[in-house]
Design goal:
heterotetramer; A alpha+beta; B alpha/beta; C mainly alpha; D mainly alpha; C: mainly alpha; 72% helix; 1% strand; globular; disordered N terminus; D: mainly alpha; binds adenosine-5'-triphosphate; binds magnesium ion
Chain lengths: 548, 545, 335, 329
């Protein structure tokens, strides 16, 4: 999805073996407003939610690249596809129980998925709707008269079968999302369910105040370690406080006083101003974890708008961009890495290195001018760059002004049009209102090229009357075809390099100019042990953390 | 302390006071023995108040330059430290200021203000101090003192405020009382009562009294020695009998000859023209419910062109309230007023409050002119200058601010302003109360002149019966919100029907000090009689309720 | 008029040639030395704002040019060198992250901040005083309507007003005008409340009644009698509106109706500099310092005007000096 | 008095309705597709349409407003998927994003913002009036100049800086205070106090500057008046004169302004709330505006309006009590 959600391996003071017990504090900026598995839009089941919701599959809780793998969770394996990967069958492990001790059945998983189709519980990823047979017409269990969604079968309490409308080799990745968590129909309270969702994971919710601002999780006695190879669940309880200011979170973590010594954050980076301080303090620097989440910030063009219909103009801009300024604008080289490829620089995505329009660190104004001249803009060019008004963000005015300055050197005068966040999203996602030149970012729903490239470059994903992400309005049959071909592969290792090759090919058209990939730098409290940061989420996994 | 009693209570040698380039007091010397009383009379603006301030060191940090020496009760006021001065002020020597309204804090209950001052010097509990406040308020003749002590200054009439200030001064039982025109707003009966009170206190406690007054009669009644001032200098000084009986200085003679006599009536009313204003059955009730108070209770009157209606009466009887209703500054509770487009003006009882402290007096006087559309600066200045001159002020002081004027001068500014509008009717609320008799005579003459020329109608509220007689054609006597007697001046003065009117006339101070003592005794008797009567009336009211 | 009376005034009349009200006001204003100093400082600030292009040309820097080489990218973008990268080229150092020249941005920022904040303050004071007076003097209904209208404006958050404006105001309206208007619209209520409450007290005074009797209409009475008395609180409060307006201007930028980047303004600089006060203190201290000096100089000037407007206070002021002299002579005498 | 109360009640109704109308109009005109935002970015047009229907966004604005009014006086029902959520009158609607009645959300947040505002209010009045008093008393001296400088620094520094500096000094470095956090008063009064102390102080430091300046200037005005002379002439100390008589003259603008500030602060001291992580009404407002959660925005704005009107009514009553020359209108 397009959200910059979360990432990798910190070197907390991890001496001594992690022990069970204690309370882990989580200090966050954004409250967990949605705690209903149907409404959550997470990558790999999320961080806090995955303590409560187990799913058919889950992400491998290992540091680094190992962590980009998908592994079984409730199911015995990552799924058995049929020959063309249109039917996927899962079998549940034995002895799975809810927090109240009742058994988890596949009917509950089916019901959980069906709920996510209800208009009342919208918000999740689009894949179930797009992939399941009949998914585009289904309106959820509250309106179907008890019929359910026929493309999900539960022949018995342990088996569940999914019928897809086209081959999808990455279905096991999808099964990590919280929509695949079981929801017992009898306990469903509709929109109220999120205040006390029934736990299938190691912790249950004992408190959910003010719509996710303060969560208290305690051990679920009916969760069995034997059935769960992934979650370590060291602390006895977890206290999640959110709505805190980023600088205060970092202050608290660095001070590490009292309960804050056992605190982490799952959503707050060190800010640029704080980096300078942390860098000078050895002890503090040792408590910083660095992670990479698959995310790319880029310049998007609408080739229907002049002068961006001319590839030469787009290329000129690609040459002119000053990536070091752009990187500085979001906090410098510790918080972002310059990008020349659309795919994030990780193997799981199939990263293939290329730089079609080499701009160097600070732009190649000469080459850009040359191209502009060829395009008939020898006297320079005036264009409007649309950006979000959200300060400090990767699509905000800071990056926009950095680009403005860089392009000036190439004779391109950039006028800035800043839009308030909603307006900005609506404008750039609307085919009719889309501006010609704007800032954009895209993140991974799971660590693979599929959800990264298809929404942006697959011509069939252009949404004419809704939120459109194929901003370049690219509808290239050869691209579309290659997407379909790769989706058929169930061998994900084989699929990855082909996504990389596709990225390189699309890159030649210069419908986007990649700018940078964010890097996560986060502090943990001084008593935190067993910090595991995977390349899937880029942040420490709180299911692995110990406080003793 | 023993030292202090042997030497003079007040010793002023060669006092000079300058405000910038104005030399207000120059080479003034006098002394006052403990328990003695000195009256300071003289021309308005002659430096009386300024000298009085100097006794308490009140010129300190105000920009005035004081030279000479001032010793009060052994303290060298000029050199005393702030703490010494504070001890002196209030505790040893207390002052009653000339402008009663502006001299009280508008936000606090009067009783509390008195109590506060009392506690500074005498200590004690808050309660005791409040009780003391009520006691002194009662002594200065505030009716229902316990309740009135809780009122804010704006709920008091001019005379009541003045008495409150006197009460404040008395509360601390000072050795020296400096009273700056303490009776300007008091009707003669209350004035007599206050003067008697001061007299009594002097006898009981040996309090020294420095009485600044423009009223020679008041001086004659209450002091042993008089000091006559003019243009910042003493022109004559001596025992009251000598000075008033056989004045030496020309100015003193002039002053005495200008004292209005009760029997000097206005030259017969020219012609009572058409009515300018008719009021029927006016009532004014302040407050609501239990705390309501009827200040004016069913008053009807008519004022005709070219005629002066004098209004006299007890302090707090509703004269100001009536006057304000007549000009429309105050809404009536009931009753009707017909003005028929008559242009009305008012001379306010409190000259300080009626002048904007931020605007020069010239501008204040020019106000009505500008309001009527005159734009020509030259003309305005000329006209204002002429008006100032006519009320006896220097036209060059156009650009001066109210705080640079003496009490009487400010009062005259108020008159000039009322005249500037060329109104048909003026309600004058104690317009000459702060003026020395010569200036007073001059101002009343001016009013009469204008009345003859323009057919001006006047409502002349005053406590000075002689002045009222001098200027009025008809007179109304007010008491407790009602007009108790109304008629042609000669009739009312000649054969008063109402006992209150008789009492008023009996209380008029005389210039003869010997006679004054005799009358003081007679008054005492009459007062007792009246008190009995009032008690009976009160009982009747209770019975009726 | 008797001769005697005229003569009697002669003593008091030996004064310097009288001066008109306005001239007296200036005289009283100039008598306060601190006011002159403050006025010069403020004039200097205005000059800096007006001469921004000149001054930056002198320095040889462009306020919007990035200098990535001058900041330490790995350390979040702190300026290299000491004191925020102060050097011969960059007189006051450079901005963290971007490396833009701080001096140039400050002087250009002065234009927006002083211009917008100052004009907006004037408009706010004007609206506030007018409505406050109208509420106090216009009778019960006017008071009700105005006071409730004020409540509505106070209760509407800037966020909502900003959103509304984005929706209605066409792009053709110049930004500074728009910002000034918005700030004026959201910020007059304090003045209006103060004026209303003070005027309610004042209107019962005799001198106001006297003016009414003089034949002036309510408006004229308000202007002539009440305004001068209201000047003290209004000026005092008005001065404080200037920094408040600078913050509103910054907040508006968040909402997208503020000054468009990359144009600098003090408000935006302050907001951006927030987190940097430890790692790059000059970045925060400079705009804050400039703002402080502006407000301080305005305060002193305002204070002077207030004193000069009140003849009583003015004479008291003169006295303060004298009384100290008095005290000294007293001390000497007691030795 | 009854008349006053009735008029104020009428005024309050007017203000609240006016506010709700303005918010409706603004949100009607403002950009941002509510259904899309509520549904989520990756919803299909069909799903967006369903959400659009569910939220009754298809109705003309006046119909939507009419439903709102109905809810306000008679309550409303909403679907929760499995059943019906009833929202009792006065129902401000159901939050688009949180799926709970706005009234409930507000009732939850009020004690939070209330605690913040009341504490800060007390502190800033004490601090502001105290500073103003001191500088009027010590006028012309070094103390006054220092105070003026300090108040102006306080006023021209953003709350973010002051707050963060306080946190770093008192919480991180010295460790004297816990990091600010809201604990309900009923849970633990002590924690409530310590957790809110820094937010109160930061707010007070900024707000009090205004009061200090105003108090000082009004007091100097009063000190020039004649009645002050009376008390000087009766030997009252300068301290008593300044602290009692002159201060009383400064009461009018302070009451007027504090009503305004306290009232509008119920709409949230947004920056303070977010810096200190206090989940009050201001934070709610910002989040709701961002998410185009119209019912919540209307609710918050109306709440603010209510408190503004209330504070003003209290101020007027207080003021008429303090200065009896003023009649209660
Ligand atoms: N603050 C001041 N600044 C300038 N001149 C002043 C000031 N106070 C008083 N004066 C002038 O000093 C002179 C004496 O004033 P003072 O008040 O002592 O007069 P007074 O004898 O009390 O007169 P009245 O009987 O009218 O009250 C007057 O001419 C007056 O105008
Ligand atoms: N605003 C008010 N509120 C309550 N009572 C008031 C108010 N104004 C006047 N009074 C009362 O009304 C009565 C009449 O007052 P008024 O001022 O008319 O008296 P007066 O005849 O002018 O007296 P004086 O000669 O002392 O000036 C007094 O008892 C006074 O206390
Ligand atoms: Mg006098
Ligand atoms: Mg009177």
């Amino acid at each position: 999805g397009p959200d910059d959600s979360g990432a990798k391996n910190a070197g907390g003071s991890s001496d001594g073996k992690p022990q069970k017990g204690g309370t882990l504090s989580v200090l966050n900026n954004e409250p967990q407003t949605d705690f209903d598995p149907a409404r959550l839009y997470t990558s790999g089941g999320g961080n806090v939610p995955s303590l409560v919701f187990r799913t058919l599959t889950t992400r491998n809780r290992e540091a680094g690249a190992e962590g980009t793998k998908v592994v079984p969770d409730l199911a015995t394996d990552t799924g058995k596809p049929n020959a063309d990967a249109t039917v996927w069958t899962y079998t549940l492990k034995d002895g799975l129980k809810y927090e109240d001790g009742s058994p988890i059945t596949t009917a509950d998983i089916k019901y959980g998925i069906e709920r996510s189709f209800a208009a009342e519980l919208s918000g999740g990823a689009p894949y179930l709707r797009d992939w399941l047979v009949g998914g585009d017409k289904y309106e959820g269990p509250y309106k179907d008269g008890g019929k359910g969604l026929a493309s999900i079968e539960t022949p018995d309490a342990k088996t569940i079968v999914f019928h897809l409308n086209k081959p999808e080799g990455e279905f096991p990745y999808l099964a990590t999302q919280t929509q695949f968590a079981p929801v017992p129909k009898a306990k469903d309270t509709g929109t109220k369910y999120e205040s006390h969702p029934v736990s299938s994971g190691p912790y249950k919710v004992v408190k959910n105040e003010n719509d996710g601002e303060h969560l208290v999780l305690e051990r679920n006695p009916n969760w069995s370690e034997a059935t769960d190879a992934e979650r370590k669940a060291y602390p006895d309880s977890i206290d999640v406080r959110s709505g805190l200011d980023a600088s205060v979170i970092n202050q608290r973590l660095s001070a590490s006083q009292g309960p804050d010594s056992a605190a982490v954050t799952t959503d707050t980076n060190l800010g640029p101003a704080e980096l300078a301080k942390v860098g000078g303090d050895k002890a503090l620097a040792g408590r910083v974890g660095t992670g990479h989440f698959g995310y790319t910030n880029y310049i998007a063009f609408n080739p229907k708008v002049k002068p961006f219909d001319d590839p030469k103009v787009r290329q000129a801009i690609a040459y002119a961009v000053d990536r070091s300024s752009a990187v500085n604008a979001v906090g410098g080289s510790s918080l972002a890495e310059p990008a020349t490829t659309f795919l994030p620089n990780q193997k799981a995505f199939g990263y293939t290195e290329f730089d079609h329009f080499p701009a160097g660190a600070s732009g190649n104004a000469a080459k850009a001018k040359e191209l502009l001249k060829e395009a008939g803009h020898a006297d320079g060019l005036t264009v409007t760059l649309t950006h979000s008004n959200a300060k400090g963000g990767p699509k905000g005015p800071e990056v926009a002004t950095a680009l403005q300055d860089a392009l000036k050197k190439a004779g391109i005068t950039v006028k800035l049009q800043g839009l308030e966040a909603n307006d900005y999203n609506e404008t750039i996602q609307s085919v009719s209102k889309e501006p010609g030149f704007f800032l954009r970012g895209w993140g991974a729903d799971w660590p693979s090229g599929g959800p990264f490239l298809a929404p942006i470059f697959d011509g069939r994903q252009i949404v004419k009357d809704g939120a459109n992400f194929n901003t370049g309005l690219l509808d290239d049959p050869s691209v579309n075809k290659e997407v379909d071909e790769i989706n058929k592969l169930t061998d994900l290792a084989a699929a990855a390099p082909r996504w990389g090759a596709l990225d390189k090919k699309i890159g030649e058209q210069a419908v986007v100019v990649p700018l940078f990939h964010p890097v996560y730098k986060r502090l943990v409290g001084k008593d935190i042990k067993n910090v595991v940061i995977s390349d899937w989420t880029g942040v420490l996994d709180i299911s692995q953390v110990a406080v003793k | 302390m023993t030292e202090a009693t042997t030497e003079a209570l007040v010793e002023v040698v060669d006092l000079g006071i300058s405000f910038g380039e104005t030399r207000a007091v120059d080479g003034l010397s006098f002394s006052l023995a403990p328990g003695a009383a000195l009256g300071v009379v003289g021309e308005s603006g002659s430096g009386k108040s300024a000298s009085a301030y100097a006794l308490l060191g009140l010129h300190r940090s105000t920009g005035a330059v004081v030279d000479g020496t001032v010793r009060v009760a052994g303290t060298d006021v000029q050199r005393a430290s702030d703490a010494e001065l504070r001890r002196l002020r209030g505790g040893v020597a207390a002052m009653v200021f000339q402008d009663p309204l502006s001299s009280l804090d508008p936000y606090y209950a009067i009783g509390d203000q008195i109590a506060e001052v009392y506690r500074v010097h005498r200590g004690g509990s808050k309660r005791a101090a409040r009780a003391r406040a009520v006691e002194v308020l009662d002594r200065v003749g505030i009716p229902d003192a316990a309740r009135k002590a809780r009122s804010r200054p704006h709920e008091f009439s001019g005379g009541m405020r003045q008495r409150a200030l006197i009460a404040m001064a008395l509360a601390c039982e000072p050795k020296l009382l400096i009273a700056d025109e303490p009776t300007t707003a008091l009707d003669v009966t209350v004035q007599a009562q206050i003067l008697d009170l001061l007299h009594g206190l002097r006898q009981e406690t040996g309090m020294g009294l420095l009485l600044v007054t423009h009223d020679v009669g008041v001086a004659a009644e209450s002091v042993d020695d008089v000091l006559v001032m003019r243009q910042g200098r003493a022109v004559e000084r001596g025992p009251v009998r000598d000075v008033l009986g056989a004045p030496k200085a020309a100015y003193t003679k002039e002053l005495l000859s200008a004292v209005p006599r009760l029997d000097a009536a206005k030259p017969a009313a020219s012609d009572a023209g058409e009515p300018l204003l008719e009021a029927r059955d006016l009532r004014k009730v302040f407050g609501r419910g239990k705390s309501s108070f009827t200040a004016v209770d069913g008053v009807s009157l008519t004022v005709r062109r070219g005629e002066t209606l004098g209004v006299v009466g007890e302090s707090g009887s509703g004269k100001t309230t009536l006057g304000r209703m007549l000009v429309g500054l105050l809404d009536t509770t009931s009753g009707t007023i017909r003005r028929d487009g008559t242009a009305v003006q008012m001379v306010f009882q409190d000259p300080v409050a009626s002048l904007n402290p931020r605007r020069s007096i010239g501008e204040s006087v020019a106000d009505p002119l500008r309001a009527s559309g005159v734009r020509d600066e030259q003309r305005i200045r000329a006209r204002v200058g002429e008006l100032l001159e006519r009320v006896g002020l220097d036209p060059d002081r156009y650009d001066r601010y109210p705080h640079e004027f003496s009490g009487g001068q400010r009062q005259r500014v108020g008159i000039a302003r009322a005249l500037a509008a060329e109104p048909q009717l003026i309600v004058c609320d104690e317009p000459v109360s702060a003026l020395d008799v010569t200036t007073q005579a001059h101002v009343t003459e001016l009013l009469a002149e204008l009345q003859r020329e323009l057919g001006l109608g006047l409502v002349f509220i005053a406590h000075d019966l002689a002045v009222v007689r001098q200027v009025s054609d008809r007179v109304a006597v007010m008491r407790r919100g009602r007009i108790v007697e109304e008629g042609a001046v000669d009739e009312v003065y000649g054969s008063p029907k109402d006992p209150y009117t008789r009492q008023l006339l009996a209380a008029v101070p005389t210039v003869d000090p010997v006679l004054a003592a005799v009358r003081r005794a007679a008054r005492k008797e009459l007062r007792e009689q009246l008190r009995e009567q009032a008690g009976a009336a009160g009982r009747d009211e209770v019975a009726a309720a | 008029m008797s001769e005697a009376l005229l003569a009697s005034q002669a003593g008091a009349a030996q004064v310097a040639a009288p001066a008109s009200g306005a001239r007296q006001f200036w005289r009283r204003l100039r008598a306060q030395r601190a006011v002159t100093v403050a006025a010069v400082v403020f004039a200097l600030l205005v000059f800096v704002a007006l001469a921004a292009p000149l001054l930056t040309a002198l320095e040889g820097q462009d306020p919007n040019a990035f200098h990535p080489a001058l900041v330490d990218s790995a350390a979040g973008g702190v300026p290299k060198g000491s004191f925020g990268g102060i050097s011969g080229d960059h007189w006051l150092g450079v901005e963290p992250q971007t490396g833009r020249d701080l001096f140039a941005r400050l002087v250009y920022g002065a234009r927006v901040s002083l211009g917008v904040a100052f004009i907006a303050t004037l408009v706010q004071v004007f609206i506030g005083v007018s409505l406050g007076l109208l509420a106090a003097l216009g009778g019960r209904w006017a008071d009700q309507v105005i006071s409730r209208f004020t409540d509505v404006v106070v209760a509407l958050p800037l966020l909502v007003i900003g959103l509304g404006l984005i929706a209605i105001v066409p792009d053709s309206v110049p930004r500074p005008v728009l910002i000034t208007a918005v700030i004026a619209v959201v910020g007059w209520s304090g003045t209006s409340k103060i004026v209303r409450s003070s005027a309610l007290s004042l209107k019962s005074l005799d001198y106001v009644s006297a003016a009414r009797l003089s034949g002036w209409g309510r408006l004229a009475v308000a202007r002539r009698e009440l305004l001068p008395a209201l000047a003290a609180p209004v000026i005092t409060y008005g001065v404080l509106l200037v920094p408040a307006n600078v913050s509103i201007e910054a907040a508006l930028s968040f909402l997208g109706v503020g000054i468009k980047p990359p144009t600098p303004s003090w408000g935006q600089m302050l907001t951006d500099a927030n987190t940097w006060y430890q790692s790059a203190p000059t970045y925060l201290l400079l705009p804050a310092g400039f703002l402080f000096v502006t407000v301080l100089s305005l305060t002193v000037v305002g204070e002077g005007v207030r004193t000069a407007l009140d003849p009583r206070a003015a004479s008291r002021l003169k006295v303060g000096v004298k009384s100290r002299k008095d005290a000294k002579s007293r001390k000497e005498a007691s030795k | 008095m009854t008349g006053f109360l009735l008029r104020r009640l009428g005024g309050a109704v007017f203000v609240l309705l006016a506010l709700s109308v303005v918010v409706y109009l603004v949100f009607y005109a403002a950009p941002g597709n509510v259904a899309q935002i509520v549904c989520g970015e990756r919803c299909s047009p069909a799903q967006v349409a369903q959400v659009h229907d569910r939220l009754q966004l298809g109705d003309p604005i006046y119909v939507q407003y009419w439903h709102f009014l109905q809810g306000l006086f008679a309550g409303r029902d909403f679907s929760s998927g499995v059943g019906v959520v009833h929202c009792d009158a006065p129902c401000l609607g159901l939050s688009y994003r949180q799926d709970s009645p706005v009234t409930d959300i507000l009732v939850n947040k009020l004690p939070v913002t209330g605690s913040l505002v009341i504490g800060a209010f007390v502190l800033w009045i004490l601090l502001g009036v105290g500073t103003g008093l001191l500088s009027a008393w010590k006028r012309g001296g070094a103390i006054e100049r220092t105070l003026t400088g300090l108040t102006l620094i306080g006023f021209s520094t953003p709350v973010f800086v002051i707050g963060l500096v306080l946190i770093i000094v008192f919480c991180s470095t010295l460790g004297w205070l816990p990091f600010p956090q809201y604990t309900p008063f009923s849970d633990n009064p002590e924690q409530w106090f310590w957790g809110l102390l820094l937010p109160w102080i930061s707010l007070a430091l900024i707000e009090s500057a205004k009061y200090a300046r105003l108090v000082r200037s009004s007091m100097l005005e009063t000190l020039a008046e004649d009645h002050v002379r009376t008390f000087r002439a009766y030997g009252l100390t300068e301290r008593a004169i300044v602290g009692k008589h002159a201060l009383r003259g400064a009461v009018a603008p302070v009451i007027a302004l504090s009503a305004l500030d306290a009232g509008s602060m119920f709409g949230g001291a947004v920056l303070t709330e977010s810096l200190f992580g206090i989940q009050g009404i201001g934070k709610l407002l910002v989040d709701s505006v961002r998410q185009v959660d119209l019912p919540v925005v209307v609710g918050v704005v109306m709440t603010t309006g209510f408190f503004v009107v209330l504070a003003n009514a209290v101020a007027d009553a207080l003021y008429a009590m303090a200065d009896r020359r003023v009649v209660l209108q």
